[in-house]
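Rrf2 family transcriptional regulator: structure, please.
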Amino acid sequence: MRISARADYAVRAALQLAASRDDGPLKAEAIADAQDIPHKFLESILNDMRRGGLVLSQRGGNGGYRLAKPAESISIADVIRTVDGPLVSVRGVRPPELSYTGPAESLLPLWIALRSNVREILEGVSLADVASAQLPADVSALTNAPSAWVNP
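Here you go.
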């Protein structure tokens, strides 16, 4: 699985909004500066997130962006899907729409299992979890194996 720059920036922007939700709306420039995200790229991402119902925008001198819902109710998967589409695809196609024959026939259940695990992790972690550095125990446990930190 590959996390695009767009998805990474969107999650980071959403986390910045989650961390400062009591401070009122944040300007895009402030989010971009805090997270080292190119401002123009961030504007496009915030617009997608607004259209997707994850953030609200407010105009005026005290305007900016804020989360549309509590951070506890927005999963990391919600953010990624909003800006990048499905979490797992093969050649741009969702796994259930694929078919294989012969020795490749077992690929489909493999891709479905992969998608299931990705969903379980990303849907099970909220913006609030990450912003408070309180990842769910099952997610934290996956990072305990030394091999999890090594690039093969």
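Notes: The radius of gyration is 18 Å.
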